[in-house]
Amino acid sequence: MKKTLFLSPPSFDGFDGGAGARYQAKREITSFWYPTWLAQPSALVPGSKLIDAPAHYQTVDDVLKIAKDYELVIMYTSTPTLPNDVKCAEAIKAQNPDTQIGLLGAHAAVLPTETLAENPILDFVCRNEFDYTCQELAQGKSYDQIKGLSYRDQFGNIKHTEERELIHDWDAMPSVFPVYADNLNFRNYFIGYLLHPYVSLYTGRGCPAKCTFCLWPQTIGGHQYRAKSPDAVGQEMALAKSIWGDSVREYFFDDDTFTIDKKRVMAISEHLKKLNLTWSCNARANLDYDTLKTLKDNGLRLLLVGFESGNQKVLDGVKKGIKLEVARKFMENCTKLGIKVHGAFIIGLPNETRETIEDTIRFACEVSPHTIQVSIASPYPGTELYKQAQENGWFTNNNLVASSGIQLSTLQYPDLSSSEIEDAVEQMYRRFYFRRQTIVPIVKEMLVDPQMLVRRLREGREFMSYLKERHTRSLVNA
């Protein structure tokens, strides 16, 4: 085995752009997702090391001190962080020109030729579902014998091997938990709506939904959900319990479609109940009452739900596959059962107007999830939304984030400017959070949990600073 380093490079201050974040941007409050896209191949390479620099506040100099001892460096990149990531690669190469350096991630998978052509410091790019590609790189296989690889040959020519098949035997995939335990400080990972400390994981990949904006299914994971069996997940969670005991307060299942197979998720929840674990997961807003009750009885605390918009035309335009009346009933059932919901919304999707933005704000206030996040529509390369934006001339620029890491709108429409889309984010946050219906439950939560009290006060300061930064940016651009 080559001595292999898996690296999420240093980035903007407080930037949640690592291998796991669905939106590579600085969030409203300190947020760090686990680097799952790097941890999984790392679990296949004995003796490898994983560095998640942003979450551990490591600089390029810190990384260089470690990287000097490694033959192979595999870095995660994203569309907004690519230029910054390449600079880190250049620093590693300058220190040791013999180091092999390559990238993985959705941007590199979709644009392998462009990524290599524009960045001659790189030796290779891993495409699509890349776990076993990384393993074979570490084993020292010749580039031309590794499926799913784009590389620069000895003459500088860019070559592509045949596509690698998607992984179907997920029970054979090793757990990421030992990688986390050996390489990461789990107390450094915060998500505003999850208990702290938390641990997140994937139990499978792929999503049958066809949402035009969603990154992973259209670039890496595909539209077929392939997952571990309930017994395998149960064994993995027992391993987690043996590693962290009761130190971890919540486990988050980050599968795009964790609840899509109701029989499977209920079987998994039975294992979680036996282990006495508190857990949360991604879900679509269409689960029925009986399923929700079973999951709640088996330890479910919170659901992360992508509502996206409060306007049906906007939802239909992005192929969301959810009706607003179904989402309303879902929220009614969650409220009855005491299941907290973190609602995810997107401003600036196709068909968006000033009126549909108002519909979304009113819908969010009506169904009133415990917390919300408001993102700006991001047309990542490889998505249908990106193609639509190109064909319709919606792009204003190619910068998905500002120099500070805050998300920007790269889209505008005939009757809606990019600045109006950006302004609507602040407006929605203010109108949702500065309400009695939102403030009272959060205050009650703080009063019964001293840790939550300290945390929410910190998050409140960060949130107000975030809104101020957005507002200042809007005034500058006015």
Provide a compact summary of the structure.
By secondary structure, this protein is α/β, with parallel strands linked by helices. Helix content is 42%, strand content 15%.
Structure description:
It is a single chain. By secondary structure, the chain is α/β, with parallel strands linked by helices. The chain contains 18 helices and 17 strands. The protein has a seven-stranded mixed sheet with strand order 4-1-5-6-7-8-9, sandwiched between helices. Strand 2 and strand 3 form a beta hairpin. Helix 16 runs antiparallel to helix 18. The radius of gyration is 22 Å and the shape is globular. The N and C termini lie far apart (56 Å). Keywords: Iron, Iron-sulfur, Metal-binding, S-adenosyl-L-methionine. InterPro entries: Aldolase_TIM, BchE-like, Elp3/MiaA/NifB-like_rSAM, Hopanoid_synth-assoc_rSAM_HpnJ, Methyltransferase_Class_B, rSAM, rSAM_sf. It holds the Pfam family Radical_SAM. Its cofactor is [4Fe-4S] cluster.
> In which order are the strands of the major sheet placed?
4-1-5-6-7-8-9
Mind summarizing the main beta sheet? 7 strands, mixed
Give the helix/strand class: alpha/beta
Distance between the termini: 56 Å
Overall pLDDT confidence: 90
Describe the global form.
globular
Q: How many H/I helices?
A: 18
What is the CATH-assigned architecture of the largest domain?
A: Alpha-Beta Barrel
The unreliable regions are none
Q: How many strand elements?
A: 17
CATH homologous superfamily designation of the largest domain? Aldolase class I
CATH class of the largest domain: Alpha Beta
Beta fraction of the residues?
Answer: 15-25%
CATH topology type of the largest domain = TIM Barrel
Q: What's the gyration radius in Å?
A: 22 Å
The share of residues in helices is: 40-55%
Number of domains: 2
